[in-house]
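Researcher: I'm comparing several assemblies side by side, and this is the next one on my list. It has 895 residues spread over two chains. Same procedure as the others: predict the full complex and return the structure.
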Amino acid sequence: MAGKRGRVSAVGASEGRGSALLAVRSLTKLFGSFAACNGIDLEIQPGEIHALLGENGAGKSTLVKMLFGVLAPTSGDILWKGEAVRIPSPGAARRLGIGMVFQHFSLFEALTVAENIALSLSPGISLSKVAEEASRLSHLYGLPLDPKAHVADLSVGERQRIEIVRALLQNPELIILDEPTSVLTPQEADRLFETLAKLKAEGRSVLYISHRLEEVQRICDRATVLRHGKVTGACDPRQETPASLARMMVGSDVASVTAAGTNTKGEVLLEARHLSVPARTPFAVTLKNVCLKVRGGEVLAIAGVAGNGQGELFDTLSGEYPASDASAVFIRGKAAGNLGITARRLMGAGFVPEERHGHAAVPALPLSDNLVLARSQSDRKTFLAGGLLGIIRQAVVRIASKRISETMDVRKSGENPAAGSLSGGNLQKYIVGRELDRQPAVLIVNQPTWGVDAGAASRIRQALVDLAKSGSAVLVISQDLDEIFEVATEIAVVNEGRLSDAYPAHELTREKIGLLMGGMYGKTDGEVAHAH
Amino acid sequence: MRIELEKRANPSTLFSILSPFIALALTIVAGGIMFALLGKSPTSALYSFFIEPLLDVWSLHEIAIKAAPLILIGAGLSICYRSNNWNIGAEGQFIAGAIAGAIVPVVFHDWHSSLVLPLMLIFGMIGGALYAGIPAFLKAHMNTNEILTSLMLVYIAQLFLDWLVRGPWRSPDAYNFPVTRDFAPEAILPEMIASGRANLGFAFAIIAAVGLWIMMRYTLKGFEITVLGQSERAGRFAGFSSKRMIWFSMLLSGALAGLAGISEVSGTIGKLQPIISPGYGFTAIIVAFLGRLNPLGIIAAGLFLALTYVGGEAVQLTLSVSDKVTRVFQGLLLFFVLSCDTLIQYKIRLVFLRFGQSSEGAH
């Protein structure tokens, strides 16, 4: 470690050369007394792909927002080509030559690609000219795009291309990409990397924000690592191992998860039989003939790009929106398809939804109340008194809440703070711990570590694996392939509401999953999906 | 220029507690200005409005009489509002309860029994609950907006009562006045203590408010109400049904408004007439918010709003100002309570824009 830190200062020592495209000197941003960015130093050379690595809450977004003129720094300097500049607005950043592609796109679904692009340009440029220029750029950089297509009909990857082309139209010298691959299939990500290589070859610089270590190692020339608002390392990522990068990010060794491996397989505890559910809203996905089986001791992971029916599948399996057919879902051998979530909990199932705030937890209520939220009926005997009156035994609940916090290492301010005051990772540990605490026979988790820092994520994954080892059936819905390979014994892929067959995890490669994600069942094994 | 409300990261706890009192002080100041503009001495006007009624046993009883329906209705509404169901039609449920409860003494006026009064109270609660059941049904099954339906039903109830007392229920001995026959003595809600007119309605109000407070504070039902009010999705995850909560909260608040209605006609008026409420059902909305949707706070808020009714009558007599003064005071109070709460949660920011385009001035 010490050696690597030494290299850090060597990189830092290049200041004063003045060749950097963008340099940041002790940039600080305070929110009240909280320093989101604390004395950040950063240099981006012309023609390099520079990674900005860090956990959630490390200060990446704050730093980038200051560079793009969305937030004003509290103190420190931003140097553009050696000159100190003030960037009061995104418009000013664009005029300097900084373009940005946000993680969440700002596109109008009802408009065409060209119209969306024209909206971000100064008025008076004709639409046909915009379309022409956009399609020229999109071909030049390998970003195929039809200017006349409506955004609503496009995939997430195509929408991202619009944002990239929109940024390129300004002819920027520095392009900032915020977690660009989080929404892409592996194939789409590969395409994006080719585009980035072209940009780099032209001498443009890229600031690439990510928490995916392998990508950073693959495409980035240099990396700056942030932790708790400070720079903890600057390095050449190719000289590092994923473990050493993770150490800089997390500050300690990330425990590697021991995969469930080949556990002794028990009985089928969770099963869906030809589950079909019509879309509840115009924007929802219809589930089509979904079949799955999870045995005790197994972790079945369902991969897929966001918005392919994961949420709908969770809602139906949890019983929040039950199916009309009782025999569509079986829990521990009993038909449960038309039962509500409480009945399914009483059958021994536990659930962790994707959205923490306002679904898995009520942010304004204390942790103990959020424990009652999930377990008022399954733990009725311990948590409630007074028979029909249903008086909550606060003291008992608090003890249980404390036990969960200790088991899962939930860091919080005070004994029983509001759920909303916890960081994403700590709240997620609590929400997962809340279910594990009652040793459910079946656990269904949607995006277990979405937006969670590496330390918490590894803890949660280990807990899921351990639960399966103890004989429970675990179903994990996730978009994170690293996570899936860490925890899964079986893997299936969901695409447009259809679920593929489940394959043993060690038989699948990333490429194969990527193909399944794209809906290309035929090319995998020549098998037809859902053969159970 | 544009005014933006920006959410505060940490709303002050101190000011959240002080907010009703600040609102009160601002109401009194604004009221003083209003009296000055009317050409009356603000100090003596405010004295006869807010202080004098407290110094007299008779007017203390009047305050209790007027506080009873406000607290009963307000406590019920607080459950509705906490669960995110916006019952604005308590005035109509009050009238429906009064009519349903009056069936016994008006239609069966020859039946004399000690069961009359309990039956009236039960009928009153059922009447109010059923009337609130209409917007509940419409919201739960037709997805209509309960604010509009419950409000419109108020006018239907008022006109129905008007028709009843002028038509089928008009007393044969009332010289064509639009009133029902006087309730028999066993249909009259007894007084609480010997010193004045205040009746058992006030006791009902206190019992209901304390009971609801215990429910909200200690029971799973109260927890369910809180959760569903804050996040329907989290409530669904907990296994709570927001549809059932629509029914529960609307029927509960309707029943309490109905009880207030029958208590008012049985204890205070003694018969049905075209107008039986000076707007208790609407004023109770102010009471609910002034009491911060906490049933115990609502007891205090109900007593204060009752004071504005009694004080309003007093200044009508002593200063000969319009009876609208009471409504103005109540309106001011609600305005200040809501603005104080808003300013605790948000700060105001003025955004100045240059001419034409946005403010993208380069460095």
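Model: For your comparison table: The first strand of chain B starts at residue 2 and ends at 7.
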